[in-house]
Amino acid sequence: KQWYQRRVRVLDFNVFAAEKQYKMPFRPDMFRVPCKKGLEAVMHFLLTKLDPERSKVEFAGCWPAHDVKRSHLFRKNVFNWLTELNRDHVEGIQIPRINSSTLTKASGPLIVNLLERLSALVLATCMPKPEHRELGKLCPVFNPNKPHLNVAASELLHLQLETLKREMAKKAEQTHLLREKWDQAAKDTADEIHRQSKKKKSLEHKKELLETREKDYISAFSADQRFIKTLSVADEEALRADVHNKA
Predict the structure, then answer these.
(1) Do 11 and 126 touch, CB atoms closer than 8 A?
(2) What is the DSSP string of 8-35?
(3) Count of CB atoms within 10 A of residue 146's CB?
(4) In the chain, helix, strand, coil percent, each to 5?
(5) Contact indicator for 22, 38 with CB cutoff of 8 Å
(6) How would you label 95-107 residue by residue, b for 16+ Cβ within 10 Å and e otherwise?
(7) What is the DSSP letter of 141?
(8) How far apart are CA 96 and CA 111, in angstroms?
């Protein structure tokens, strides 16, 4: 179902005047085949509704797009604007990413999907909301005196919930990836601490061995010194003579 047709009517798009002006029918299936004039008309209407002041600046030199040059400039400005909307996620609605050639082709499911999302965004922007903006993203105001707006509000609420579900799934996946990275970093840190601990114990053991050898050397040297001191003069001379003879 191509809900954008209902939404643009709710936004006061005059189908009969448009058909008379562009000399072409505006039907729900109009984008099964290339329809550049029809796409330009709907895009101009929606973006003007979305931001009237900006549209005056953006489309000052290219609307109406009655020749090839102005038509090209109009599509260029529309493409840049849609690219910003894709990046900013206004009202929590994801505008699909497109190529500039998509607007030139002006047909197919991608164009229909683009118009459905853009019309929902314009409707969300134009409809009254509660004072709390975050709550307003999920709670468009339902007015019993305007049933046609209530239908659009229901569609908008459904679209926003679908967008939130996709965002939650994306955040859950990102959280899972971050947890895996955290677990790996914790494991690497624990392994490094274990290696450093073993290295420290090995160095402490070598230090103890060196200290023991040093003590043994000092003890042996002290014993030799004490032995030498106990020798008499005669013993010392005999010792020296013995060493001389052996030499």
Answers:
(1) yes
(2) HHHTT--HHHHHHHHTS---TTGGGS--
(3) 13
(4) 80, 0, 20
(5) yes
(6) beebeeebbebbb
(7) P
(8) 10
**What DSSP string runs through 78-99?**
HHHHHHHHHHHTGGG--PPP--
Q: Are 160 and 94 in contact (CB under 8 A)?
A: no
pLDDT digits (tens, 9 = 90+) for 71-82: 999 999 999 999
Question: Alpha-carbon distance 203 to 209, whole Å?
Answer: 10
CA nearest to 31, candidates 132, 109, 100, 93:
109
The DSSP code for 142 is P
Amino acid at 171: K
**Among the residues of the chain, which ranges form H helices?**
3-10, 15-22, 36-50, 52-58, 68-88, 100-105, 109-126, 133-138, 147-230, 233-246
Amino acid (one-letter) located at 149: L
pLDDT in tens, 114-153: 888 888 888 878 765 544 444 444 455 555 665 666 666 6
Q: Pick left, alpha or beta for residue 108 (phi over 0 → left; psi -120 to 50 → alpha; otherwise beta).
A: left
